[in-house]
Automatic annotation (TrEMBL):
Source species: Geotrypetes seraphini
Name this protein carries in UniProt: Clarin-1
Tagged with keyword Membrane: yes
Transmembrane regions: 92-114, 135-157, 189-209
Location relative to the cell: Membrane
UniProt entry keywords in alphabetical sequence: Membrane, Transmembrane, Transmembrane helix
Protein's UniProt keywords contain Transmembrane helix: yes
Family recorded in the similarity comment: Belongs to the clarin family.
PROSITE patterns named among the record's database cross-references: PROKAR_LIPOPROTEIN
Main localization (coarse): membrane
């Protein structure tokens, strides 16, 4: 492939990586990771609420990685509450998983920036055959993709397996019991998902530029003691 086309492909991949870094950074600070509805089970059982009356006992919850809010509905009107994960809820939520989600989200943003630099260096600089060349592009794309996958898996496990919404809404609720009525992942979660797919796309863009996957190199290829410029 001509060098000019390689530069165009690497520039496009670099722009996508930079956009992902900005998107992930913005997603970390929002409350739009998950939204749902919460049923006041105690209140509904007390009045033996029917399907029509049940709406008076269904509140809403929305949260991100740092803070959130929920609206309590127990038949006597709505009462909004705001909460923060740090340090208020660390003793009731799976703290290790939640902190891991934060760390891998931050790592995803950092590695996306590193990946941007590598792509731009390969487009306009003189990359070397070592980690400055295609091997480095494959490496950072794979690391970024792995971080994105871990964020998605860990947050999904925290919400679905550990029932995060119920733990939040039942915090310091002595007389009432709340249970999840419905849940859906928010925009920030899907931003992470899209950025993870972009990491995979970048891997195929590298291959489109004419560079073989690292594991597909021929065993008979000779190794040299010196590092040569790629182009």
């Amino acid at each position: 492939m001509p060098n000019q086309q390689k530069k165009v492909i690497f520039c496009m991949a670099g722009v996508l990586s930079f956009a992902c870094a900005l998107g992930v950074t913005a997603a970390i600070g929002t409350q739009q990771w998950l939204s749902g509805t919460i049923l006041c089970k105690t209140g509904a059982l007390l009045v033996n609420a029917t399907e029509e009356e049940l709406q008076k006992f269904i509140g809403k919850v929305q949260f991100g990685l740092f803070h959130g809010q929920w609206v309590r509905q127990c038949g006597l009107g709505s009462r909004p509450f705001r909460f923060s994960f740090f340090p208020d809820l660390l003793n009731i939520i799976p703290a290790s998983i939640h902190i891991s989600v934060l760390l891998f989200s931050a790592a995803l943003a950092v590695f996306a920036l590193v990946e941007t630099g590598f792509f731009m260096f390969n487009a306009f600089g003189n990359p070397y055959e070592a980690l400055h060349g295609p091997l480095g592009l494959y490496l950072w794309s794979f690391i970024s993709c792995s971080c994105g996958c871990l964020v998605l898996i860990l947050f999904s496990a925290e919400v679905k397996i550990h029932h995060l919404s119920e733990k939040i809404t039942n915090y310091k609720e002595g007389g009432f019991m709340f249970q999840t009525h419905s849940e859906q992942f928010g925009k920030s979660f899907w931003i992470i998902f899209a950025c993870t797919l972009v990491r995979l796309l970048n891997i195929f863009l590298i291959r489109l530029a004419g560079f073989q996957f690292p594991f597909s190199k021929s065993k008979d290829s000779e190794t040299s003691g010196t590092i040569d410029l790629m182009y």
